[in-house]
Design a protein that fits this description.
four-stranded antiparallel sheet, disordered C terminus, 2 domains, alpha+beta, about 350 residues, 14 strands, 12 helices, three-stranded antiparallel sheet
Length: about 350
């Protein structure tokens, strides 16, 4: 059967991109669950069969890094890191606490104390990691050890050269800085990140590689496991379908309203422990196509191919790779449990 396609309108809307490193950013540091505390200790094997581990150990004095600490990391620290240039300096200036509050849209008076504590939560959260990744020059690098990502120096405190800090600074840990200087990056829409609630923002960060790949390969939808989303967001993972849909309705609603997602559907499955799980089938919307057009295709717009995606209603079986394997290894990888780093690298 010939596969039908639907055209997507892709208006050229100026985007404000932010490029984030794509190795450590896929792992969770912050607790985004509204209630309780979740233990972040992820172990498994990557696509090449190598063992990996990611464990997060918050500081008891300052508490777990939660939504505010997450917003500071992703909207303030990551932006300053990007602005620092290709080779990241060890010391990066963030600005005053009040300026950070204004940038986050918070009341300067009430939020200053909370922002200061959230910065301390980020700085004092320990990470145990064992990860292998491919650097930008194609060499294989590894991280194995215990570290925190950065230290924080507040206004008036002493910097390493003896000067008094005129603002808030972060001092990048050597392990973290090495990743920032060597790992590949991927783009996100910074202005879009800023308007999303934290859980919806994390959803966008995690599924965007699959969304991009689905558009590139003209697949009917991107696929992402519900349990993986919860694991890599430090969110409560439910096994009751009604609770799952209620949880994801709130998280995906901003993406439907913005046009990033056209629709979402669910396919029953089970996780590695035999518990109920769901594949999320995510149909990209007009905003996703606009991002793909601007971020992934660096050519004269007159030479770009038309951006189409296979219709959900027809041809789904024909475009899904079989479980037995396929000659198109790139397409087969779209449906494996990985973050598609090699595919995203190929379209950047």
């Amino acid at each position: 059967m010939k596969l039908k396609h639907q055209r997507r309108e892709t208006k050229v809307i100026p985007l404000n991109p932010i490029r984030i490193e794509r190795e450590l950013s896929r792992f969770p540091v912050h607790q985004l669950a509204k209630r309780g505390s979740l233990n972040v200790d992820i172990r498994g094997r990557d696509r090449k069969g190598r063992e990996f581990r990611w464990m997060v150990a918050p500081n008891r004095v300052y508490g777990e890094p939660k939504e505010l600490a997450y917003r500071i990391d992703t909207l303030i620290v990551n932006r300053r890191i990007e602005e620092a240039g290709k080779v990241k300096p060890k010391v990066i200036k963030l600005g005053s606490l009040r300026a950070i509050c204004r940038e986050l849209g918070l009341n300067e008076g009430k939020a200053v104390k909370n922002v200061k504590n959230a910065l301390r939560q980020n700085a004092h959260t320990g990470i145990t990691a064992k990860i292998t990744y491919q650097s930008q020059d194609g060499t294989e690098r590894s991280i194995e050890g215990d570290f925190n990502r950065y230290s924080v120096i507040f206004t008036g405190e002493k910097l390493s050269d003896g000067r008094k800090a005129d603002a808030v600074y972060v001092i990048l840990n050597d392990v973290y800085r090495e990743v920032l200087n060597n790992a590949g990056t991927r783009p996100l829409d910074y202005d879009y990140l800023k308007i999303l609630p934290p859980s919806s923002q994390r959803f966008y960060e995690l599924v965007s590689p699959q969304i991009f790949a689905a558009i590139k390969y003209k697949l009917p939808f991107a696929r992402y496991a519900y349990s993986d989303f919860c694991t890599y967001s430090a969110l409560t993972c439910y096994t009751d379908a009604s609770k799952v849909k209620k949880q994801l309705y709130k998280i995906t609603l901003p993406h439907k309203k913005s046009g990033y997602l056209e629709s979402i559907s669910y396919q029953d499955t089970i996780d590695e422990q035999g518990r109920p799980d769901w594949w999320l089938h995510l149909v990209p919307g007009s905003k996703a196509f606009a991002e793909f057009r601007q971020f992934a295709l660096k050519q004269d717009s007159s030479k770009l191919p038309s951006l189409e995606i296979a219709s959900e209603k027809e041809g789904r079986r024909e475009v899904l790779p079989s479980d037995e394997g396929t000659e198109d290894s790139d397409t087969q990888e779209l449906f494996q449990q990985s973050f598609l780093c090699d595919l995203i690298k190929s379209i950047e």
